[in-house]
Amino acid sequence: MAVLVLSGAIGAGKSSLTGLIAERLGTEAFYESVDDNPVLPLFYQDPSKYAFLLQIYFLNTRFHSIKRALQADNNVLDRSIYEDALFFQMNADMGRANQTEVKIYKDLLGNMMEEIAGMPKKNPDLLIHIDVSYETMLKRITKRGRSYEQVTTDPSLVKYYHTLLDYYEPWYQNYNYSPKMRIDGDKYDFVENPKDREIVLGMIEEKLREMGKL
Ligand SMILES: Nc1ncnc2c1ncn2[C@@H]1O[C@H](COP(=O)(O)OP(=O)(O)O)[C@@H](O)[C@H]1O
Ligand SMILES: Nc1nc2c(ncn2[C@H]2C[C@H](O)[C@@H](COP(=O)(O)O)O2)c(=O)[nH]1
User: Fold this and answer.
1) Which helix (H) or strand (E) holds 20?
2) Does this model's pTM top 0.90?
3) Which of 25, 57, 175, 213 can bridge 2 by disulfide, Cβ–Cβ 3.0-4.6 Å?
4) pLDDT value at 33 more than 90
């Protein structure tokens, strides 16, 4: 079997699809710590003060997860270390990190990636990227209901979410750690519609079969 990593914007459906894949393929699911993340609500209150600290928190947990996931060949991660720099670069570009923080971050990430490159299994087997439009992203963020993520609580998040989506396309194009595939998260309601769920899981299984991993 394989190590799968999911990617996509906030609310794209990564955790939901991770659970469905784990159930279907009998793999272990790795979820990011969100509700027990002590820095996340602070970041949304004061992004400039907490952008660096939050990134170090996520980077550390993502490093831990990918190391564990790559040790066994039957895992699925709802977001991975490969997306970490996307978030920090965006926040740094928005002026939420200073040059020293950017340098420390890049050095630390570089060290961690070297560690991963030295492991017996160096890369995931497949990246599954969920594309969503701004409208879908917002609908799902509203549905999930975390107060600090709501644009009604903080209207400046409208720009933040649009900018995040803009950073994803080049990130996906440049991602080259493994084969990759895209799922249209606007088209397929794999959470509430069983037919759509079958189509999406079928596409993933087909890709794995093509790769000789299923
Ligand atoms: N394809 C989908 N169709 C309908 N609802 C979805 C879909 N994907 C996710 N959701 C809902 O949107 C919210 C966010 O999904 P989640 O899986 O937590 O996203 P992510 O992990 O990418 O942030 C949840 O309430 C989930 O039930
Ligand atoms: N500044 C950063 N924020 C991040 C990062 N990874 C996730 N997040 C935020 C975005 C959401 O509010 C929340 C959970 O993300 P989901 O996509 O799982 O809903 O955490 C990051 O690296 N930097």
Assistant:
1) helix 14-25
2) yes
3) 213
4) no
Query: Is residue 198's pLDDT more than 90?
Result: yes
DSSP state of 186: T
Q: Both tokens of residue 142? A: 């509203």
- For ligand 2, mutation pick of 54, 56, 80, 163 (most atoms within 8 Å of CB): 54
Residue 29 identity (one-letter amino acid): A
CA atoms within 13 A on the CB side of 167: 22
pLDDT tens, residue by residue, 107-159: 999 999 999 999 999 999 999 999 999 999 999 999 999 999 999 999 999 99
Catalytic-role residue among 78, 84, 125, 131 = 78
Q: pLDDT digits over 10-19, tens only? A: 999 999 999 9
Instruction: Compute CA 155 distance to the chain's CA centroid, rounded to the nearest angstrom.
Output: 23
Task: Please confirm, yes or no, whether 125 is among the known catalytic residues.
Answer: no
